[in-house]
Amino acid sequence: MLQETQGGDSEPVKLSAVILSLLLVTILLGLAAVETQAESTLDNLPMPEFTVKLASHPYDVPTTYTIDEYTGQKITNPGFHVENQSIEVWIRNNLLLPSYCDGEKAQYYYDVRVKGHFGENWNKLYLYAPEGYDSGNLPPQSSSDYTILALPADYPYNAQLDFQVQTLLWQYTQIWIVEHPMMSGPDAAKLGHCEPRLTLGGTSDWSKTQTLALISETPSDTSSEPEPVAASTGVVQPMEQPFPTFQVVAASASIAIIVAAVLVFIKKRNHSSPA
């Protein structure tokens, strides 16, 4: 009777150990998947999604009057109307950025390039110097749903323009600054200090091309968000965040194993229980 009791008690203990082990494996797999996804996000930034349109912010300059200081005559300065047109690039901020990356502050920026629709040479609109730890005049990602860039519309009427957008990840890292670069000797490099500097951590591929024709007589209202344009025009459609397949498969498999183990345990207990 004593052996039967000990054997019966050992089965739940063994099964509990198995269940705890499976739970530990599930947690480790989840952590590894999150780390892998984070590294993939930094190394392979997704192409940005954007819409480009001709916008207008018109205003009227009123008529003013002045007095000629020499003759005393009244001078009329006629008022006029200003269309104040611009090209607006609406970039969807679908990238989740942690406040700190690898222990350092990070920030997404965007670059834009444009060319004539019938030409071959792209012209980048912003300047930066990765080798000089300088993000230049790149526009940063805004804190809202869209980053809106206003570009001058100083092109001929009926012009057709091609646009592409690129995402860049810049982050602050600590670099060693040698205080006496002209000094020689084995200890010269040790005389310095650390400073935070911007470094280029990764870039996306250039987005698909969107073509804008400057033929609108009544430029669009800029008070509302733009609607996604059909893919045939070159606009990238809104894209959902990558589906975490690895995490889901790992968690589902582990849960299935645990459930199966519990069912086996219940079945054994039912068979071993006295009628």
Structure overview:
The strands form 4 sheets. Strands 7, 8, 9, 11, 12 and 13 form a 6-stranded antiparallel β-sheet that branches. The protein has a 3-stranded antiparallel β-sheet with strand order 1-6-10, with no helix packed on it. It has a two-stranded antiparallel ribbon with strand order 2-5. Helix 1 (2-43) packs antiparallel against helix 2. It is 25% helix and 32% strand. It has 275 residues and is an alpha+beta fold. The model is unreliable at 1-7, 33-41 and 228-246 (pLDDT under 50). It has 2 domains: 1-46 and 242-275; 50-240, no CATH class.
Overall pLDDT confidence: 73
Number of helices: 2
Q: What is the H-and-E element order? A: HEEEEEEEEEEEEEH
The shape, in one word, is: extended
**Cα separation of the termini:** 17 Å
Secondary structural class: alpha+beta
Features:
single chain; 275 residues; alpha+beta; 2 domains; 6-stranded antiparallel β-sheet; 3-stranded antiparallel β-sheet; 2 helices; 13 strands; 32% strand; extended; disordered N terminus
Quick recap:
The protein is of the alpha+beta class and 275 residues long.
